[in-house]
């Protein structure tokens, strides 16, 4: 049996989905006062009757209010209600932190609660999200957390604000889905300080579904314990919407437990596939994913149980029975329940970490998705520890999705190690692990090699020249990126000469060597102040080259 670095059986690798659901909305602002607020007719969702009989099987639309997924499509083609990897991998721009973002956001929301000025609040939050698009999901989390501690009128107004932000295109469906999932996973902690949180959260969800802010399918993602707690004091309209969901979820979990107990004995994937297809309760498949993972923890042979669980998830995903969404929702629910699992299984955190590593290695979940879970603090302190450990143990995957600060730190470590060893092949291997590098990252690599070499001896400068030529010959660096890297070096020359007075002469030696080896075009000249906008830095959050026009 072949095993990979995480120790589980290696099955056929499954490619990650390339795209996720995205929708565009016309930015139509509403009347200033909440009492006058209405959504344009084109933005209103056409929803079915929310009254669900106890034994009725619910077939929902998509979670975020968009089009339903097509049944039977391969996982790599499925759409994700959480957003695509590009969205999930985005990070704070320079000068921003989570604390600063939350402070600015809370200021806008607190003023909204006092004034009820819809237009002004939408504009302020639009500007904030434009500066920090990576934190769009935090808007929903903070807004609803404030509402949980407020009165009924404020809770309704916050739902109206979310409706306005969605209609104006400030928040998309994926961001709001992530907001709700954060609250779904954290509701028990919230209820310690706000005992009425379950019923308020369900009431706000009801309002968001009714107004088309999120899709009705999100109701099927409610945790059973939240449903049970919230429905005890729910209003009649909320009860009508959710009673059928609660009964169907109980029915599904009972059936799944029986099927999986048989699977971990017989290991017959085909039987489980047939069972799920005949059950026709796809909306709850995330609960199946979570249960598979949890049951693997309790097998007599944990390693064999993990192999069996991975085989089941991989083959059901290949067969189109499970989707990318099912795997993502199943994993967030696992992270959200780790503290409870530890009561019966003290090793659950370590077992969850190993399983997460395996899911990444099998490409069933992506590194950007796990990083977004970490950014949202899914699972609290325990969940963050598991996610951090997963990233450390999967460097060959995590390095492909480094944030700008992480990339720069990793790059400096790689270059300094190369100066110590002189091993070009090893450096090239490290670059390949991070591939594909964005153009801006490639340019940063070029500049950093030269800068760090210039701060050291002639030996390091010679090694740097050799390395750049080697990387270009082996197509790890593109000529355009090399040229931008040289331009970047000269843009920063005034600062560099403060620490290295003869930096300009050293840079000229790099230019001569690069032209001689064909790395840099012969007619390249040192950029001047009269040239293009050289002061604007490369945008590493998107990987774009802000000065690519210089080489046209």
Largest sheet: none
Radius of gyration: 26 Å
Order of secondary-structure elements: HHHHHHHHHHHHHHHHHHHHHHHHH
Q: Which descriptor suits the 3D outline? A: globular
Strand content: under 5%
Considering DSSP H and I runs of 4 or more, what fraction of the residues is helical?
A: 55-70%
The count of DSSP E runs of length 2 or more, i.e. the number of strands, is 0
| Separation, N- and C-terminal Cα atoms | 53 Å
| Unreliable stretches | 1-6, 8-61, 67-77, 530-552
Number of helices: 25
Give the helix/strand class.
mainly alpha
Mean pLDDT value: 82
Structure description:
Helix 16 packs antiparallel against helix 17. The N terminus and C terminus are likely disordered. This protein starts with 84 loop residues before the first helix and ends in a 36-residue tail after the last helix. The protein is mostly helical and 552 residues long. It contains 25 helices and no strands.
SSE blueprint:
Layout (H helix, E strand, L loop, with lengths): L84 H5 L8 H18 L2 H14 L4 H13 L3 H16 L5 H21 L3 H14 L13 H8 L4 H31 L2 H11 L5 H13 L4 H17 L5 H13 L1 H7 L3 H14 L5 H9 L4 H14 L1 H4 L5 H18 L2 H11 L4 H16 L3 H16 L5 H13 L1 H7 L3 H14 L36
Helix pairs in contact: 2-3, 2-4, 4-5, 4-6, 5-7, 6-7, 7-8, 8-9, 9-10, 9-11, 11-12, 11-13, 15-17, 16-17, 19-20, 19-21, 21-22, 21-23, 22-25
């Amino acid at each position: 049996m072949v095993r990979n670095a995480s120790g589980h059986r290696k099955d056929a690798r499954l490619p990650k989905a390339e795209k996720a659901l995205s929708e565009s909305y016309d930015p139509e602002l509403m009347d200033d006062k909440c009492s006058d607020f209405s959504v344009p007719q084109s933005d209103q969702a056409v929803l079915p009757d929310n009254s669900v009989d106890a034994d009725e099987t619910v077939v929902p639309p998509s979670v975020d209010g968009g089009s339903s997924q097509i049944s039977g499509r391969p996982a790599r083609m499925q759409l994700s209600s959480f957003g695509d990897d590009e969205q999930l991998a985005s990070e704070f721009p320079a000068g921003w932190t989570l604390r600063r973002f939350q402070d600015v956001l809370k200021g806008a929301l607190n003023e909204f609660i006092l004034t009820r000025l819809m237009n002004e609040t939408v504009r302020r939050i639009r500007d904030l999200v434009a500066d920090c698009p990576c934190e769009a999901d935090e808007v929903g989390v903070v807004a609803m957390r404030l509402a949980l501690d407020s009165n009924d009128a404020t809770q309704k107004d916050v739902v109206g604000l979310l409706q306005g932000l969605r209609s104006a295109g400030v928040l998309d469906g994926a961001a709001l889905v992530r907001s709700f999932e954060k609250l779904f996973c954290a509701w028990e902690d919230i209820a310690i300080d706000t005992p009425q949180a379950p019923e308020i959260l369900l009431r706000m969800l009801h309002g968001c579904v009714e107004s088309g802010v999120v899709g009705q399918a999100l109701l099927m993602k409610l945790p059973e314990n939240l449903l049970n707690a919230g429905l005890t004091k729910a209003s009649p309209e909320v009860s009508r919407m959710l009673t059928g969901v609660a009964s169907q979820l109980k029915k599904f979990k009972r059936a799944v437990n029986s099927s999986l107990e048989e699977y971990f004995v017989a290991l017959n994937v085909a039987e489980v596939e047939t069972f799920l297809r005949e059950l026709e309760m796809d909306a709850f498949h995330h609960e199946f994913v979570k249960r598979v993972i949890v049951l693997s923890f309790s097998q007599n042979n944990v390693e064999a149980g993990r192999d069996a669980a991975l085989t089941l998830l991989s083959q059901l995903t290949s067969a189109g029975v499970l989707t990318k969404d099912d795997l993502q929702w199943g994993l967030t629910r696992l992270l959200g329940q780790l503290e409870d699992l530890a009561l019966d299984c003290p090793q659950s955190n370590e077992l969850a970490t190993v399983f997460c590593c395996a899911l990444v290695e099998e490409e069933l979940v992506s590194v950007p998705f796990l990083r977004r879970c970490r950014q949202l603090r899914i699972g609290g302190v325990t969940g963050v520890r598991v996610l951090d450990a997963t990233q450390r143990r999967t460097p060959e995957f995590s390095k492909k999705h480094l944030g700008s600060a992480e990339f720069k730190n990793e790059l400096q470590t790689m270059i300094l190690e190369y100066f110590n060893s002189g091993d070009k092949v090893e450096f090239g291997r490290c670059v390949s692990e991070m591939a594909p590098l964005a153009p801006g990252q490639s340019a940063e690599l070029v500049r950093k090699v030269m800068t760090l070499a210039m701060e050291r001896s002639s030996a390091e400068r010679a090694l740097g020249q050799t390395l750049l030529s080697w990387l270009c010959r082996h197509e790890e660096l593109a000529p355009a990126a090399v040229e931008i890297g040289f331009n970047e070096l000269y843009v920063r020359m005034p600062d560099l000469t403060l620490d290295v007075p003869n930096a300009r002469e050293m840079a000229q030696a790099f230019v001569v060597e690069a032209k001689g080896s064909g790395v840099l075009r012969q007619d390249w000249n040192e950029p001047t102040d009269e040239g293009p906008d050289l002061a604007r830095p490369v945008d590493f959050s998107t990987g774009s080259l802000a000065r690519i026009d210089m080489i046209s």
